[in-house]
Design goal:
Helices cover 28% and strands 25% of the residues. The chain has helices spanning 65-81, 83-88, 105-110, 142-157; strands at 15-17, 23-25, 28-29, 52-59, 63-64, 91-97, 116-123, 126-131. Strand 7 (116-123) and strand 8 (126-131) form a beta hairpin.
């Protein structure tokens, strides 16, 4: 059964709720990624008027499969489709354990209280951030997840 993530995903654990209202605990996994190990460096998008995109996956110590896929699929999409921008540094991806890295500037600024994927858009007079909550619907299907991220990037870049 495919579970739709309708419940809040706490940094300390995940519970998925199916369409019929039943719940199931998801298997936890630990991922040893340190917030200082940014997977993609920052710079500018070519032809995008000095706009920088930063995808931040906030997480806790314990992660379910969906929590892991939330970041894994985002990073894979960026690496697959934006090599030039990654090399220039205009797109980056960060995986931050908000439970242990409590002094991280992004944790202090955005105060995440659950596993989440944020998009920061900076430059050209636009400094905004948003939680990409819809990404949870696609954590079981990498191709749909990629389409969603590509759509978001295209919309934000105009």
């Amino acid at each position: 059964m495919i579970l739709m993530l309708l419940a809040s995903l706490s940094l300390f654990g995940c519970t998925a709720k199916a369409a019929d209202g039943s719940t199931a605990s998801l298997e936890y996994s630990r991922q040893a990624v340190n917030s200082s190990d940014a997977l993609i460096n920052q710079s500018r998008l070519s032809g995008s008027a000095d706009i920088n995109l930063t995808f931040i996956k906030f997480r806790g110590n314990a992660q379910c499969v969906s929590c892991i896929n939330l970041g894994k699929f985002a990073n894979a999409t960026l690496v697959k489709n934006f090599q030039a921008e990654i090399q220039k540094g205009s797109i980056k991806y960060l995986d931050i354990n908000a439970q242990t890295d409590t002094t991280n500037p992004y944790v202090l600024k955005y105060k995440p209280d659950h596993a989440s994927l944020y998009l920061l858009v900076e430059g050209a007079g636009n400094n905004s951030y948003e939680e990409l909550a819809e990404a949870w619907y696609y954590t079981g299907d990498q191709a749909q997840y990629e389409q969603y991220i590509m759509k978001i990037i295209k919309e934000r870049l105009g």
